[in-house]
Amino acid sequence: MLARLSKTQPISKALSTPIYTSVRTKTTTPYGRSHIRAMRSRKLPNPVVPHFPQLVYRSDGSSFTHWTTSPRSVITLTRDTSNNPLWSATARMMGGRTGVEEEEEAGTGRMGRFKRRFGKELDVDSWSDIHEEAKAEDDAPAKK
């Protein structure tokens, strides 16, 4: 059947009988289906509900239980937020002698490369001296 009858409301009280209009269920145009009503509404898939309790042992010895879709009842982590350097970078950099500080002291880090490239180590007084020298060089051509 190419057309389906659709019941619409009467336009006025004078027309007490409903008016039937035809609505296409199949397209006859090559331009798509934008003019055809949807036959059924789209439905989202059912959510995946976790059914299994899982006990998780972290690398520092602590543990917690959570619900998951995996049937494994126990999982032991070797790498987690307590021992991963990406998660504890501030502790690594703040506490004691560690990799970054040793690299800088040995001259193999970024600051070491900078010092080798540009020669000397600069402090606050050196920066002010360099600034004054640059200002004097700028003023010298103006006096001529």
UniProtKB/TrEMBL annotation:
One of its GO terms (biological process) is mitochondrial translation. One of its GO terms (cellular component) is mitochondrial large ribosomal subunit. One of its GO terms (molecular function) is structural constituent of ribosome. Coiled coil: none annotated. InterPro entries: Ribosomal_bL31m. This is 50S ribosomal protein L36. It comes from Coniophora puteana (strain RWD-64-598).
